[in-house]
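Notes, Module 5: Reading structure tokens.

Key idea: the token line is not a picture. It is a compressed description, and you learn to read it the same way you learned to read a sequence, by spotting repeated patterns. We will look at two proteins. The first is printed below with its tokens.
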Amino acid sequence: MGGTVMDSSDASLTESVPGETGYRPTGRRETKPPAATRVHLDPGARVPSATSATKDGPEHTTVPFAYDAILLSGFGGPEGQDDVLPFLRNVTRGRGIPDERLEEVAHHYRHFGGVSPINDHNRELLSELRSALSAAGIDLPVYWGNRNWAPYLDEALAAAAADGVRTMLAIPTSAYSSYSSCRQYREDWADALESAGLQEALRIDKVRQFFSHPGFLQPFVEGVRAGVEQALAAGNRGDQVEIMFATHSIPTADAELSGAGLFPDSDGGGYAAQHLAAAAEIIAQAAPEFSWQLVYQSRSGPPSQPWLEPDINDAITALEGRTAVVIVPLGFVSDHMEVMWDLDEEATETATERGLWVTRVPTPGVHAAFVEALVDLVQERIEGRPVEERANATSIGPWFDVCRPGCCENPRLGFKPAIAGLQP
């Protein structure tokens, strides 16, 4: 496991806090909800645990629907040294990876005191999203639950149900289509519903993948402009600057099944195609005369298993005629471990050793345009907004509201119970 992993004892260890702080742990729980063994299907329905607006599986929902609440879904991360291994066990559950191999990744977290910044970033996003929804006149509570660490999804769902919530619109903190960035969220929602005993009581839809939303792209546009200006101010010519759009690598077999099979001729399926479309739009707005490429990072599979390439460090090493590198963390919403370690430490070190000037531009975080984009995704579903009126800045999109059959299957693990998409 060469790269960073992507991203029990008591029944309930958190409490619901209705204010800006979200859920705060009141005890220690080390394991995520167990895998679901079944998914309830309403009579005649094709989409499990879905609202009446989506249960029949339309690609895009154009029927207005009044949700009860929003579910902000994060990857989760450790918040102390004692959390690191239990967290990594959650992330890799079912893969049979021994602790000694997990320790190869754990040292990345231990380097930062065992604390991933992702939970604090999500607390900030939670607060900003609540404020922005209120400013837009959307009176919906926002619950926050993580897939792999406290606050867990089943705890968030239990709190919502206790508050009388029956329908939720979920916002994953991931913009693209792949097993780990979309379908695994859907599986974990199914796990959480079963664990909380809410399969009959709670319905969950999800917003579309937002890689093509102008508000998601705007922070990167600004970052690339600033990065290029800094590179030029440091004495590099324009033809000496390479812009590298970085995202998490995934197994090529997974990539081929991403994006509902709509990109059979794409090297990397829908996952790569969506990133390339986003990068092309950012370049068109920010630096149309500059050289750029899509690179990958954070590989964690065995050497015998093909993953998407090139790795960012290999790409940097292979550069010729360049004196500067602008790294764009296109695959990430916030500055969590894959950004802090794999880009700010490893890739930056590779560039420096090659004698290259290097900078890394910010992730969207809580940039106002990104937060407003999330609000817009909620509004389009409440309104039942027609597809042609939805915000979209790339050649691909707007993406589907309901995931298509077989989209983003993991061929090694097989189909697991999942919601918010057509079966299987």
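Here is the second protein, with the sequence above and the tokens below, as before.
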Amino acid sequence: MRFDEAYSGKVFIMSRPTYEDADAILYGMPMDWTVSFRPGSRFGPNRIREASLGLEEYSPYLDRHLEEVTYFDAGDIPLPFGNAQRSLEMIQSYIEQILAKGKFPLGLGGEHLVSWPIIQAIYQKYPDLAVIHIDAHADLREEYEGEALSHSTPIRKVCEKIGPENVYSFGIRSGDRDEFRYAKESGMHMAKYEVAEPLKKVLPSLAGRPVYVTIDIDVLDPAFAPGTGTAEAGGISSKELLEAIHLIARSDLRVVGADLVEVAPNYDPAEQTAIAASKFVREMLLGWVKPSK
């Protein structure tokens, strides 16, 4: 599937009708084939789109309106159910098409393993890439119960691909002992429990660099986002995650792509997780996508 193919399903609020003049491409990755606890994040992208219909188009935080950003919602990549390897290959190919057109990829997950092929594609274009990872979980395992393709492994794979010194994790409060040992000994940057304050300290050192940002919704405390597959108590608030998004927006970072993953709406009948996620996506679009013209 090409990112510019016609899509007749639900779209994020104020999506442009065609891709040609869009600066950003919004797309979904409905995959939850490797989750270790509760499946259901494959339904996340469409629920985020539906929740966006209740948003205001204007952000008082950034004093910007969605009419100022040109983006095209290309719908979901039609991933083969249960086939993790083939799904990852399709995602990487899809992102390569977007990058070849000079557009900003903004992905909706799906489980966190979907970030791995995106970062591989972006690293091919930006060999000095840095990654900002905002999450409750370290995701630094080499495998999970014998499976190297697991939602608990993407950041370890990224460290091995681009160098651990180029990976910055925030909000981490869960992982096994070996993961935290690896973080400490490898030279990667890990801030436990909090996001905004440690992010402030790091941003000046990343000024001017191409940066990919991946956000797992479970960085939020379950009180703010119960609709996720592996909820973890002791997290940050929606307000702090918004602050982090705005810190990045107001910094000198060159954000070249991003994703928001692990929204599993079936565990949240009040839909507060999808509602929060849609607002985060709005702020990411308004703050991180720079006009090409």
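Summary for the second protein:
- Helices lie at 44-52, 84-100, 115-125, 154-162, 177-186, 196-202, 238-249, 272-288.
- The radius of gyration is 17 Å.
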